[in-house]
Specification:
Layout (H helix, E strand, L loop, with lengths): L5 H11 L28 H5 L10 E2 L8 E7 L5 E7 L7 E7 L6 E8 L17 E3 L3 E5 L1 E3 L2 E8 L6 E8 L4 E3 L6 E4 L15 H7 L2 H14 L7 H20 L4 H9 L10 H4 L7 H14 L7 H20 L4 H8 L4 H11 L40 H10 L5 E10 L2 E10 L2 E8 L6 E4 L21 E2 L4 E4 L1 E5 L2 E9 L7 E8 L2 E3 L6 E4 L20 H14 L3 H17 L2 H15 L13 H21 L4 H11 L6 H17 L4 H13 L3 H14 L4 H10 L4 H6 L15 H19 L4 H9 L1 E3 L8 E3 L9 H10 L7 H20 L4 H21 L9 H17 L5 H18 L5 H38 L3 H5 L1 H7 L2 H19 L5 E5 L3 E8 L9 E10 L10 E8 L8 H8 L3 E5 L2 H8 L5 E6 L4 E5 L35 E2 L10 H9 L7 E2 L3 E4 L3 H7 L4 H15 L5 H9 L6 H13 L10 H16 L4 H9 L9 E7 L5 E6 L10 E8 ...
Parallel strand pairs: 1-12, 27-28, 28-29, 29-30, 34-46
Antiparallel strand pairs: 2-3, 3-4, 4-9, 5-7, 5-10, 6-7, 8-9, 10-11, 10-12, 13-14, 14-15, 15-20, 16-18, 16-21, 17-18, 19-20, 21-22, 21-23, 24-25, 26-30, 27-31, 31-32, 33-35, 35-36, 36-42, 37-38, 37-45, 38-39, 39-40, 41-44, 42-43, 45-46
């Protein structure tokens, strides 16, 4: 139905949703246009319904049945003015009078009016007009009201019998304001004597037909449209349907139904009572339209601000109207109703919606256009092992004192504490010997010193010691004692000491302070305290590796201070502040150790309070001191910012003085204001006074939730338990909370108000991620509310970006929206705007850091809330959400270059999706894989940085082992990475389906049967031998591993290159090797651990089934038989033939390996457009010759000893042999011959650039020789029983082509075995990322040999790293153990460039090979042609390695394809 198209509905909403009708025919052109005077465009029933007012005076005042004047309607114009209309209908042929009176008017009013005739919709202008009437554009009349006291009056007379009704609006010239009737024109019906006596209808059919309200016609038209199946109508049919709807309603009215009953019937509202007379109806109060708008907005906010369609919006308006009418029906006045619902800034929000014509649809901020790389951070985390100093430490006098006590017989040290004050120290030790407890205090402070001390049985309650235990010369006070220190000496070192022998009074500890003259000495502002409880022996057994990979000295110091830290959070934060310098000096591991300790505290693994009363402001002050120190480090050491943010988020903001004290003061105000001074509130009050903690935030929220649920106690416990607070924990506080909250209904409103304020104070101190308090702190605030924050003034942070406060206000207003997308955009925009300030480190950086932490935390919460919203979302929306999460992760990461390039590529894929590019899914899949790699790398980085510290400190502190085991995992789960991973997992199947990728990539297609064995990583089992055919399901495969003996298949979710070492090994050994992308399939296979299965691959899929033992022998794998022996490989020993270096023309089987010979063979035989680099070689036997030289005698002897160890299975000798080889000295003759051959072949000689350059080249040569003893190579040759001593290493020397791209070609597709198809992979930069164990996939393509101009792209690249190098020389391994029959040793040994390669994080969004389809086709086709030409030259399938430079193809080596 054309009248209900999206465009029509949208236009109708704009005109009608808020009671604004279509523009009148005679619209005035004043500063403010009048509300509409004619009908709206067509609307659905639900749209029209919201324009209906409540029962009572309506837009059409029904005529009376008597001739005397009668009040036919009262209409509220604003809060103080009312319009009263009186009609005196006339007998036929006489004058009818309409009196209008507006009460309490201040300005000049104008009546904008016209008359209606039966069967006519347009206004007529009666000839009989009041004085002063003006004609407006020949379409309306404008008559001024006459002022009468506080009111304004006007009488209209008409003697035209054709006039059926008067229709009008009122304009207040003073306020430039139009008054309307519930969004419609006022309409007053006139009645003549001709209508009398016609029964209930009270009007003729003709009159009725003219005056059927347009909103009801619209509803009826919509109902007809629904009834007939929502057909699409032409404009002509649409008009006919509209008039048919009108005719149906006229028929209803002619049958005698009243207009009110008709309205109730159409809108499903309650029908008016039959007894309701016009007079009684007129007394019902009309709901002002502005309040309806506010109530509709409140309903929308409560529903989570969903995206309502226009129809639903207007249904909501009608429901809002009903709710308010129900309130009025209870007797509440309009003023009371207005006061009730116009709380906070709700009116501002509604007016903003109306101004922007959003009509309660979600607002969105306009994000600024930026280059993503403006967000770049390149601060890499470098973990440096802590160096342990071996120099002996000179013992201090306090060390000697401790030792003297420990050496006493039967002396048990109960506790030991070392305190610092200034540059001095005091040692407190409690010992037990012969059932007597003694306290020893020793100090290196040599000025006269008084010990002011007492004993405690209960936390915070000092007791004067009994007189019988006082040391000589002590002075007993009221609640304490004073004792002078006495001087003593040990090994010539002076110190002062006090010793106190206790009785068995059951004391728990000894608090004390010191006095030197008139100066009091305390412990960071608190009392010193020695706990008498025996120390619990922790699990600290040192296996030699304990503490490896940590700042061990720092962690051990933390463990030593933990007992003191447990006294209160004030003590813990002060100790943490004292440790900041040591943590910083220890580097990243030191800061990680500090974070682990604080995280253990935040997750309640450590005691927060023990035997100590502390004021909230003291905790707050200590927090402030600690976070101030972290702020200084944040400014100075940008490489630590990521982990410093984590520490600050776990600690909270703090704040000296008032911020902390408010916690103590405000709880008293809450109790007094709400008359709740006993029970749970009093117990909580006592706990807060004793020692506030982050638990109080949770307790407060639990109480609020309990009150909001109408006092459902289960809600209270649910909130507590979800946040880790059990009943036992409540009872464990020094001031335990035994009771449950118990309030009365009349306390509800006040408690919610006051506790809502109070939780902000709690969060301001304890929470590092509370958005509201973080924004308030940065924006500034001043509060003078009774009891709360009286006199508090926080100034705004200076230098905030323009529009930033409005952006934060937007975030706060949308933080609970059901639809998260606008909020996520706002949060990200705020974080991006904040970033320059965080980098420039202005004043109050700490407040900005906490704001950024809060924005990040809110973002993560909103994303998790949006999962349901994405269940049925289109691919574009899921991709957009992934883009948002990627950006948020980048903003929280110190080294975010890879993440930003992922984001650029992902956004490019999103654009391809919108443009319907047929490659979008394949392109997006590559970036999805790259993002996963980035997340895996991030997780590994976190694990290496944090987990060793968590394990070592956890063992020192006795932290629960389960908590330690999952420490890093929980950190990752708390960040954006886990939400991003969840979105990727959700979207991956969509991409695979669209790109026709399937669930598998088969790398080595072999049909096998074996027992399923699940392992975490292939590397961990590569040297294991399985005694029966085994199919490994390996959760991690890097690419460099060996295939273990007895393994017939490897299934993994990882994606090693088709040309990686493990992939080549699998194909050579006829082992099934496949990547499975579907987590559900992998999960299913993991559930079949130890069961016998058969796997059958095709080029793109794998089928599998459980089989019986009898079928095992049918396996096609040569390793299927258990214990299958691998035949040994015969090597011929190579000799040194008298030359240290040879040219390519001299390459022979006796001198060099197949790699060198093949490259020499290609020269001049392949097409001229394919380049071959110039080569020379260091032949077989040269290493052994150099080793035998007299100048290398010591090296040779050392290597011989190490080889002896190796023969006795001491494999640690492998690494030592490699190091020994690097100590070789080059014979003069080798240098001379190599220089001659290189220069003679046109290659540069490194020594011409200086001796250092030659030394670099010589070191590279030695590294190639040393790679003979790589672990992987050694075990591989050992597995095939190859005599390792017979393995000789020639070195192929080539000039490096500084490549744009590198490639490897298989001239027979290895995945399918199709000899008619070439398969190749391409990477940016050097080929080491392709053949080495570099993560990610290369660009891959296939090409039919009979159509080399049409390569088919199979996958875009996902490798994050490319290797690039200056003009240089590479020394390639070329052993006699490669490409042997039945054994492929390629890739086992190292090729080493003379110069270090530069690792570059790759940006594929600017790469022409990705973006330029023409260039892509040209390069890939050329690569395929080169491979085909080489295959034809050799007459057999080849593996070809090469590079592309400036569009030219170079081949650097070829070998037979295995």
């Amino acid at each position: 139905m054309s009248g209900f198209s999206a465009a029509t509905a949208a236009a109708a909403v704009e005109r009608c949703a808020l009671g604004i009708r279509a523009r009148p025919m005679a619209s005035p052109t004043t500063r403010q246009q009048p509300p509409s005077l004619r009908r709206c465009s067509r609307l659905p029933a639900t749209l029209a319904a919201s324009r209906r007012g409540p029962v009572g005076p309506r837009a059409v005042a029904m005529p009376t049945d008597h001739a005397s004047s009668d009040l036919v309607g009262r209409f509220t114009l604003d809060s103080s003015s009312e319009l009263q209309v009186t009609v005196n209908p006339a007998p036929q042929g006489s004058v009818a009078e309409i009196d209008l009176e507006v009460t309490n008017t201040n300005g000049s009013l104008i009546l904008h009016w016209g008359a209606l005739r039966p069967e006519k919709r347009e206004w007529i202008l009666p000839s009989r007009r009041p004085d002063g009437t003006a004609v407006y554009k020949n379409r309306a009349l404008r008559t001024p009201f006459i002022k009468s006291g506080d009111n304004s009056k006007l009488r209209i007379e008409t003697d035209d019998p054709a006039v059926q009704a008067i229709e009008f609006l009122i304009f207040d010239e003073t306020q430039n304001k139009w008054f309307k009737n519930n969004g419609q024109n006022f309409q007053i019906q006139l009645q003549t004597s001709r209508n009398q006596g016609q029964g209930a209808s009270g009007a003729s059919s003709s009159a009725t037909s003219t005056l059927v309200p347009e909103d009801l016609v619209q509803i009826q038209a919509y109902l007809r449209w629904e009834r007939y199946g929502k057909q699409s109508y032409t404009p002509e049919q649409d008009k006919e349907e509209y008039e048919a709807a009108r005719a149906e309603l006229i028929e209803e009215l002619n049958r005698g139904i009243s207009l009110e009953k008709l309205r109730a019937k159409l809108t499903k509202a309650p029908e008016p009572s039959e007894s309701d007379s016009p007079a009684s109806q007129s007394t019902v109060t009309e709901v002002p339209e502005d309040l309806v708008q506010v109530q509709a907005y409140i309903r929308w906010e409560k529903a989570g601000k969903p995206n309502y369609p226009p129809e639903k919006q207007l249904v909501e308006f009608e429901e809002a109207r009903k709710e308010l009418q129900a309130e009025l029906d209870k007797g509440i006045s309009i003023d009371q109703l207005r006061k009730k619902i116009l709380k906070t800034d709700i009116e501002r929000k509604v007016s903003k919606q109306l101004k922007n014509k959003k009509y309660f649809s979600l607002e969105r901020i306009q994000r600024k256009k930026r280059d993503i790389l403006q967000l770049l951070n390149k601060h890499k985390h470098t973990v440096i092992e802590e160096k342990v100093e071996t120099a002996p430490k000179q013992p201090t006098v306090l060390d000697l004192f401790t030792k003297s006590l420990q050496e006493k017989d039967d002396c048990e040290v109960l506790s030991r504490k070392l305190f610092k004050f200034g540059d001095k120290e005091i040692l407190a030790i409690a010992t037990k010997a012969q059932n007597k407890t003694k306290v020893h205090l020793a100090t290196n402070h040599m000025e006269p010193l008084i010990l002011h001390w007492s004993l405690v049985k209960k936390a915070g309650e000092w007791e004067a010691p009994p007189s019988n235990i006082l040391p000589s010369g002590s002075k007993l006070l009221d609640m304490a004692c004073e004792t002078s220190f006495t001087e003593s000496k040990l090994d010539g070192l002076h110190y002062q000491v006090v010793e106190i022998e206790l009785d068995d009074g059951g004391y728990n500890g000894m608090p004390f302070v010191l006095r030197s003259g008139e100066t009091w000495i305390k412990n960071n502002g608190s009392d010193f305290y020695l706990d008498f409880s025996p120390r619990v022996t922790k699990n600290t057994k040192d296996t030699g590796d304990a503490g490896k990979g940590t700042a061990k000295a720092l962690l051990e110091r933390i463990a030593g201070l933990e007992e003191d830290a447990q006294r209160s959070l004030m003590h813990r934060f002060n100790i943490a502040a004292d440790l900041v310098d040591q943590a910083r000096d220890a580097g990243l591991l030191g800061i990680a150790g500090l974070f682990v300790w604080i995280r253990f505290m935040a997750t309640r693994q450590l005691i927060w309070n023990k035997n100590y009363n502390v004021k909230p402001r003291e905790i707050s002050k200590a927090q402030d001191r600690f976070t101030d120190d972290l702020e200084v480090m944040y400014k100075t050491y940008p490489q630590y910012r990521e982990i410093l943010r984590m520490i600050m988020a776990a600690v909270g903001r703090g704040g000296e003085g008032d911020v902390g004290q408010r916690i103590r003061d405000e709880i008293l105000v809450i109790q007094r204001n709400n008359n709740c001074k006993g029970g749970m509130m009093e117990e909580w009050h006592q706990k807060l006074h004793n020692n506030t903690s982050p638990d109080d935030v949770v307790i407060c929220q639990a109480v609020i939730d309990y009150i909001k649920s109408d006092f459902d106690i289960s809600v209270y416990w649910d909130t507590l338990n979800k946040n880790g607070i059990t009943k036992e924990r409540l009872l464990s506080y020094d001031r335990a909370i035994h009771s449950e909250p118990n309030f009365r209904s009349e306390q509800k409103e006040g408690l919610l108000r006051d506790l809502g304020n109070y939780i902000r104070s709690l969060k301001a101190v304890h929470s590092g991620a509370d958005l509201e308090s973080a924004i308030a702190t940065c924006m500034g605030y001043k509060s003078e509310g009774e009891g709360f924050m009286v006199g508090v003034r926080i100034n705004p942070v200076k230098g905030l970006p323009s529009g930033f406060p409005e952006l934060l206000q937007f975030v706060l207003e949308h933080v609970e929206d059901k639809s998260a997308e606008p909020l996520l955009e706002g949060l990200l925009e705020a974080r991006v705007e904040l970033r320059p300030l965080l980098l420039d480190t202005p004043e109050r950086t700490k407040d900005l850091i906490f704001l950024d932490i809060a924005l990040d935390s809110t973002f993560r919460t909103a994303i998790e809330r949006s999962y349901e919203e994405l269940n049925d979302a289109a691919p574009e929306k899921i991709m957009y959400f992934i883009s948002l999460v990627l950006e948020n992760l980048a903003l929280s990461t110190d080294d975010n270059e890879d993440i930003l390039y992922c984001l650029k590529g992902w956004n490019q894929a999103l654009e391809m999706t919108k443009q319907k590019d047929d490659q979008w899914a394949l392109y997006a899949k590559a970036f999805l894989d790259r993002i996963r790699l980035a997340l895996a790398s991030k997780g590994e980085q976190y694990y290496n940085m944090m987990q060793p510290s968590a394990e070592y400190l956890g063992s020192l502190l006795g932290v629960d082992q389960w908590t330690v085991n999952i420490f890093t995992e929980e950190i990752i789960r708390g960040g954006s990475a886990i939400t991003l991973s969840a979105l990727l997992n959700r979207f991956d199947p969509v991409l695979r389906n669209v790109a026709h990728l399937g669930s598998w990539q088969v790398i080595s297609p072999v049909e096998v049967s074996g027992y399923v064995v699940v392992v975490d990583e292939l590397l961990a089992v590569q040297n294991k031998s399985y005694d029966k055919p085994t199919i490994l399901v390996a959760k991690r495969v890097k690419g460099e591993e060996e295939i273990p003996d007895g393994v017939v298949g490897v299934i993994t979710p990882d994606m090693p290159d088709v040309l990686s070492h493990v992939s080549v090994r699998a194909r050579n050994s006829k082992v099934l090797f496949a990547t499975c992308f579907d987590p559900s399939i992998l999960s299913e296979l993991e559930g079949h651990d130890q069961k016998l299965f058969s796997f059958k691959p095709t080029s793109a899929d794998v089928t599998y089934r459980e089989v019986a033992e009898s079928e095992l022998q049918q396996s096609s794998s040569p390793n299927a038989e258990a214990g299958h022996a691998v035949p040994s490989v015969l090597l011929l020993k190579k000799k040194f033939l008298g030359k240290y270096a040879i040219s390519a023309e001299e390459f022979s089987e006796e001198m060099v390996g197949a790699k060198s010979r093949n490259i020499a063979y290609l020269k001049g035989k392949i097409p001229s457009w394919v380049g071959v680099p110039t080569s020379v070689a260091i032949p077989f036997g040269t290493f052994e010759k150099v080793l035998s030289e007299e100048l290398n005698k010591e090296v040779a002897q050392n290597i011989q000893k190490l080889k002896s160890r190796l023969s006795h299975e001491d494999f640690s000798a492998l690494g030592e042999i490699r190091k020994a080889v690097l100590n070789l000295t080059a014979p003069t003759q080798l240098v001379k011959e190599l220089k001659e051959k290189m220069l003679g072949s046109g290659m540069p000689w490194p020594g011409d650039e200086g001796d250092q350059r030659w030394e670099q080249a010589w070191m590279a040569i030695k590294k190639v020789w040393a790679s003979k003893w790589n672990e992987r190579a050694f075990f591989s040759t050992r597995k095939v029983k190859l005599d390792h001593d017979y393995l000789s290493m020639a070195v192929l020397v080539q000039e490096i082509v500084n490549a744009d791209y590198a490639f490897v070609i298989h001239t027979t597709n290895p995945s399918s075995g199709d000899s008619s198809e070439i398969y190749a992979e391409v990477v940016k930069g050097l080929g080491e990322t392709l053949v080495g164990a570099y993560p990610g996939r290369a660009m891959s393509f296939a090409c039919k040999k009979d159509d080399l101009d049409s390569p088919k792209l199979l996958g875009y690249p996902s490798k994050p790293i490319g290797l690039f190098i200056r003009r240089s020389i590479i020394f390639r391994s070329d052993s006699n153990g490669e490409d042997l029959e039945g054994y492929a040793g390629a890739g086992l040994y190292d090729s080493v460039p003379m110069d270090e390669e530069d690792e570059v994080v790759l940006d594929y969004t600017t790469d022409p090979l990705i973006l330029d389809r023409g260039f892509q086709n040209s390069i890939l086709s050329s690569i395929a042609r080169a491979g085909h030409a080489i295959e034809e030259l050799y007459g057999s399938p080849q593996d070809v390695e090469g590079v592309v430079k400036d569009g030219k193809i170079y081949v650097v080596q070829t070998r037979p394809q295995m």
